[in-house]
Amino acid sequence: MANHKSAIKRHRQSIKKRGANRENKASFRTAARAVRQAISEGQKSDQVEALFKIAESKIQSSARKGVIHPRNSARRISRLRLAINKSVAA
Hints:
The chain is elongated, with a radius of gyration of 18 Å. By secondary structure, the chain is mainly α. Helix content is 86%, strand content 0%. The chain contains 3 helices and no strands. The mean pLDDT is 95. It starts with a helix and ends with a helix.
């Protein structure tokens, strides 16, 4: 454990930030899971698109905040879009 006042504060801040990052990551993973589940259940394309829009927003938001890398964000969005397009074509 840190002994200096500034190091103690930094530790407190890092714990708080870690919690926020975990919450953010869990949020976009849940949104992406909802999209994949809607695809597998064969829901209407407009419902899937609405879910995708929410997931895309959450993923991009987490990339802006530095929770995930921007390329990671792009890859996740791209794979969701591919899955949607594949289900529509089938």
